[in-house]
From TrEMBL:
The keyword NAD does not apply. Belongs to the IFT172 family. GO terms for biological process: intraciliary transport. One of its GO terms (cellular component) is axoneme. Keywords: Cell projection, Cilium, Developmental protein, Repeat, TPR repeat, WD repeat. Coiled coil: none annotated. The keyword Membrane does not apply. It comes from Phasianus colchicus (Common pheasant). This is Intraflagellar transport 172.
Length: 496
């Protein structure tokens, strides 16, 4: 009936748990279907000040989904071990005492919690050695924190409008660190998407900034009397969409790769919802949760389209570059994602319903559903004329325009490619690390036909020719042994 602010929410990295912290400072744990399964109370830094002496301002799951970090205004960060099963005992396994109130918190990488303080510092807590250290200091209250899609870079928004960027690893991008932007108001709503940074606050404007802080786009609602201040924002896990919460409304921006700009989708308007106080996106991109000032949590399905494939699989397109493939009989799921943000055209499941194949404009996505090994390799479209062979569990063989290309599942580089006209799996043999040999780390060999009477063998690790075997009559079958050192072949006269 009154304010019962949902202060923070978090999805676990494995998408199996969703945590909500209520105004009573109790953490409620839900499963992925929204059923409440567990709960635990947080505690003050010092019991003598009582249970109401603090507010929880930040909450995040560990990358392995077994712990939750809680940042509080009574100058402390607690880490709770919540266990692997529902109902496991909740144990405080770390605590980090600070000099001022914790205002926001992220857990981007193993053992590394990042949090902002009211005094303006952005600090790091190491759960392994139980120590906390300052990453950088400012003179202005930290109002928001956001990480990039990989979790290797962070942004902090400050009360004076500053947005600061820091990289643990810039992954070769060469982007600058330090003060990036002076936003016109405190950027309480801050999100780091794939191609830009989106910030908004009490001036009713959403601004998209480029990689070096230049303004790309501004969405101005300052003359819209129904719009209130923007309070919180979340980027989709793939970084292709940003949702910004305000009063009774969620605004949605979608990145258009073709235009290289943000496009505004129809806003989600819900009367009497009141102010959106927190947003959390499920890690596979399929759900978005919004917490409100009056203690409600709304869960939204966010997919572009859904389809059933061969009556066996459900395909959920959660973004232009991300598809969840679910086996309807076993319930197992694979998240197929273009790491470069390219739009996925269509997903096919081939090779006895085990292997995924999908094209984007510039890449080819392949995956083994059983082992969950996925690959994305550079691939120039050939109008879908490729022939795929899945006879080998480790390698996909692709024949296209007189060329054989090999892709090892789980690797994002092409293993090797050779020219050959013989597109029959009986005339190609690939061996990948099938038998351990002393002193040999990587052993990857290929045998194929150069012409109908000549076999060539290639070492795929060093990418050099091992040798050729010429024969006097047509060859119709060949195979390397497990180590790739011996070759067996048969000719048309039935000689082996």
């Amino acid at each position: 009936d009154g304010t019962a602010r949902v202060t923070c929410m978090a999805w676990s990295a494995n998408s199996g748990r969703f945590a909500v912290c209520t105004a009573e400072r109790v953490v409620l744990l839900y499963d992925e279907h929204g059923e409440r399964r567990d709960k635990f109370s947080t505690k003050p830094a010092d019991a003598k000040y009582g249970r109401k002496s603090y507010v929880v301002k930040g909450m995040a799951f560990s990358p392995d989904s077994t712990k939750i970090a809680i940042g509080q205004t009574d100058n402390i960060v607690y880490v709770y071990r919540i266990g692997e099963e529902w109902g496991d005992k909740k144990v405080i396994c770390n605590k980090f005492i600070q000099m001022s109130a914790v205002t926001c918190l992220l857990w981007p990488a193993e053992n590394t919690i990042v949090f902002g303080l009211a005094e303006g510092k952005v600090r790091l807590a190491n759960t392994k050695n139980n120590k906390s250290s300052t990453i950088y200091g400012t003179d202005s209250y930290v109002v928001s924190l956001a990480s990039n899609v990989s979790g290797k870079g962070i942004l902090s928004g400050h009360a004076d409008g500053t947005i600061v960027r820091f990289f643990f690893d810039d992954e070769g991008s060469g982007e600058s660190q330090g003060k990036l932007v002076m936003h016109p108001c405190p950027p309480y709503a801050l999100a780091w998407a794939l191609n830009s940074i989106v910030a908004a606050g009490c001036d009713k404007k959403i601004v998209a900034y480029g990689k070096e802080g230049n303004v790309i786009q501004t969405f101005d609602y300052s003359r819209d009397s129904s719009e209130k201040e923007f309070t919180t924002a979340a980027a989709s896990p793939g970084g292709q969409a940003v949702v910004i919460g305000s009063y009774d409304r969620l605004r949605v921006l979608n990145w258009s790769p073709r235009r290289g700009a943000w496009e505004e989708a129809k806003p989600k308007e819900i009367p009497h919802l009141y102010t959106i106080t927190s947003l959390a996106w499920k890690r596979d991109g399929s759900r978005l949760c919004a917490g409100t000032l009056c203690g409600g949590v709304e869960q939204f399905d966010c997919c572009l389209r859904r389809s059933i494939y061969k009556n066996k699989f459900e395909m959920t397109y959660v973004g232009p570059s991300q598809v969840i493939v679910k086996n309807l009989s076993t319930g197992t799921r694979v998240v197929l994602k273009s790491h470069y943000g390219y739009e996925i055209d269509e997903v096919k499941i081939l090779g006895k319903d085990r292997y995924l194949v999908a094209h984007t404009s510039d890449t080819l996505l392949l995956g083994d559903i059983n082992s969950n090994k996925l690959s994305e390799v550079a691939w120039q479209g050939s109008g879908g004329n490729e022939k795929f062979f899945f006879d080998n569990e480790n390698v996909c063989m692709i024949f296209n325009a007189g060329e054989l290309t090999l892709v090892e599942y789980g690797s994002n580089d092409i293993l090797g490619s050779v020219r050959t006209e013989f597109v029959n799996p009986h005339l190609v043999s690939v061996r990948i690390n099938e038998r351990q040999q002393r002193g040999v780390e990587e052993n990857k060999r290929l045998a194929y036909l150069i012409d109908i009477k000549t076999i060539a063998t290639v070492d795929l690790v060093g990418n050099y020719s091992v040798g050729t075997v010429s024969h006097d009559s047509k060859i119709d079958w060949l195979e390397l042994n497990e180590t790739g050192h011996k070759l067996l072949f048969r000719d048309k006269k039935m000689r082996v």
